[in-house]
Amino acid sequence: MNHGTRLSIARCSAVAAVAVLAQGCASQSAQLPEPQPPELRQTSQTAPADLQLACAAEAARVYQVASERVLPISSSSQGSTYTVVLNADGAEAVCTIDEEGTVLSLVRA
Hints:
By secondary structure, the chain is of the alpha+beta class. It has helices at 3-31, 49-63; strands spanning 70-78, 81-88, 91-98, 103-108.
C-alpha cells in the first residue's frame, strides 16, 4: 500500500467515525423527552415599594414599635388599592392602602 492509499483510508475512517458519532447523537437526542413548557404561575401585582413602606411606617406609629421592626411580608393589588401584610415586631398586621398612599385600614391579623 502506498502513502496516498493510506491517507485515503485514514480519511475514510475519520469520515466514517464522524458519521457514526453524528448518528449516535441524533438517535440519542431522539430518545430525550420533549421539554415541557413552564407551568404558568398565577400572577398578581404587588404594591409599589413606597406604598409598602408607608404601611410599615403607619404600623410602627400605631403599634408603637421601632420602624426597623416592621417589615412588609407580602402584598397584592385589588383594583386601585393594595393589601400589604406586615410583620410588626413579631405580630402580623394587614394594611390596606390606596394608590395615593392613604392608609385605609390597619388591623392585626
